Amino acid sequence: MTSRLLPVLASSAVLALGLAGCSSGSSADTTATSSDGISIVASTNVYGSIAEAVAGDAATVTSIIDSPDKDPHEYQADGQNQLSLSKAQLVIENGGGYDDFVDTMLSAADNSAATVLNVTDISGYDTEPAEGEFNEHLWYDFPTMQKLVDQLVSELSALDEGSASAFSANGEELKQQLATLESGEADIASAHEGAGVAITEPVPLYLLDAAGLTNKTPDEFSEAIEEDTDVPPLVLNETLALFDDKSIDVLVYNEQTGGPQTDAVLEAAEKNGIPAVPVTETLPDGVDYVEWMTANLKAVSDALG
Fold it and tell me: Per DSSP, which regions of the chain are E strands?
């Protein structure tokens, strides 16, 4: 919905990084692996990519949401994914109300033996903060992904003791790459601390906060867009004024959602010469998690100049 803008396309900035190699339940029987390895089901291809990185060839990973064209908030179960969950030994869900369909499907599949990794629980964050709302888009939070990798190594090693050393090595390599991503955030903060940013939804806020940027978007605007409700006219005008007043340096928007109000914000960015950076909730085709996040960081950095 943005071909008329000046978007800094993250996909064009993908770097060719090699990726070797997501509350936790009890581990399944370590002898239960099949000839295809450990059976892992992830709610989205984001967590599927991380699982593949850690498990390597020792697992078969199925991602339920595997395309930017699918919206986790509106997902409807199908028979194939139900079957995958019925056979899963390890299930990765975001939690925090983001992908409740996983729990519903897992219950219907009657698979109580599967270990469930809930990333919200792993994060340790308060889901009912005193101020604001909990941001469930945890895959943009690299410290939480570090914790997830550790949990994956532990659970996979319990399921396949013979591959424990490989899981550990893969996990360490991925954690080093996550540390590089955190360094990228620090570099942005060093160069642009306090720069103003506008968003359409809270999707990238963990990354933007860690990069030292200041979100100036009215909460009522981004919450309404996320909940697919109308933005009050006064709030929309307040948001558009950020662009006219040049109070922000970059717009970071979720290109998987759209509508008249988000179009109005994108048009305001174009009119005022403010760069717009698209982000998504799921992996674009042909990249892994680290490549995707590397590209997102580069896009934000380039937009800030």
Answer: 38-44, 59-65, 90-93, 115-118, 196-199, 214-215, 250-254, 276-279
Q: Exposed, middle or buried by CB within 10 Å (0-12, 13-18, 19+), for 20?
A: middle
How far is it, in rounded angstroms, from Cα 13 to Cα 33?
Answer: 38
Interval 72-117: pLDDT, tens: 667 776 788 889 999 999 999 999 999 999 999 999 988 999 999 9
Secondary structure letter of residue 91 according to DSSP: E
Q: In what order do the strands lie in the sheet with 59-65?
A: 59-65, 38-44, 90-93, 115-118
CA dihedral for 77, 80, 82, 84, sign (positive or negative): negative
- C-beta separation of 26 from 89 below 8 A: no
pLDDT in tens, 209-251: 999 999 999 999 999 999 889 999 999 999 999 999 999 999 9
Is the Cα dihedral 199, 70, 263, 2 positive or negative? positive
